[in-house]
Specification:
Elements: H1 13-64, H2 70-80, H3 91-100, E1 139-143, E2 157-161, E3 183-188, E4 193-197, E5 206-208, E6 211-212, E7 228-231
Antiparallel strand pairs: 1-2, 1-7, 2-3, 3-4, 5-6
Length: 236
């Protein structure tokens, strides 16, 4: 007796095209959600790291009387005998004082995802690799060339990310509108961290009442006695 084998019918070209179209449509619907979740995760990482910077800033102020600036750089060198250097006028240089003073134990806390950053390698035994170019994502806000401290308005911002710019992070208070989905992560003197809305046209972070982050004046957190200046990090 002969046995007849049943051969299953394969997909036709039309059926395959239909499946491909459905898969492509589903991918198109889910891709924006995945991207948005990725940006939210990057923003959350920046918020958590900013809080760690705030804690380190308070501890540094307890030891040196103010947040890091050129004056405290000399004191840190004298007190610790460190061989790390703090010149250069970038946020990397000022944050490096926290590491030399052995207050910050990891480079990771200074990272915030931006076009100009790379993941820190946590090697910081020399000036060449301690918070090297690209390992800092946050800008540092100073009063001209002098550091702020907790003696001022507690609502004053002192650290912010992600700054606008690619090869050169902006020092004019503008932010990257795409990195965190039109949000800027801002650490204030009281160690609170906020995610402020960033306008896509001006790239300025909004602080309420139509004011921008570095806008000074009688009706702002800066008042008339401060000159808020954004010190940008060194890009990768």
């Amino acid at each position: 007796m002969k046995t007849k084998l049943k051969i299953g019918r394969g997909f036709t070209l039309v059926e395959l095209l239909v499946v491909i179209v459905i898969i492509a449509a589903l991918a198109g619907l889910t891709a924006p959600m995945v991207i948005r979740q990725r940006k939210k995760a990057d923003q959350t990482e920046a918020v958590n790291n900013a809080k760690q910077i705030g804690i380190a800033m308070f501890e540094f102020e307890n030891a040196y009387g103010t947040f890091p600036d050129n004056t405290t750089a000399t004191q840190v060198t004298e007190n610790t005998g460190t061989t790390l250097t703090f010149s250069g006028g970038k946020s990397n240089d000022f944050f490096r004082q926290l590491m030399a003073a052995e207050i910050a134990q990891s480079e990771t806390m200074f990272y915030a995802k931006a076009i100009y950053t790379k993941k820190p390698d946590n090697v910081y035994n020399t000036s060449a690799n301690a918070l090297a170019a690209g390992e800092v994502g946050f800008g540092y806000i100073m009063n001209g060339t002098t550091a702020f401290s907790t003696s001022g308005n507690p609502s004053r911002p002192i650290v912010a990310a992600p700054l606008a710019g690619t090869t050169t992070p902006a020092a004019d208070g503008t932010f990257d509108v795409d990195m965190y989905d039109s949000k800027a992560v801002v650490l204030r003197v009281d160690n609170s961290v906020q995610s402020l809305n960033v306008l896509k046209t001006s790239k300025q972070a909004q602080v309420g009442g139509g004011k921008t982050l570095l806008q000074s004046g009688a009706d702002t957190v800066w008042g008339t006695d401060a000159t808020p200046t954004m010190v940008a990090p060194t890009p990768k």
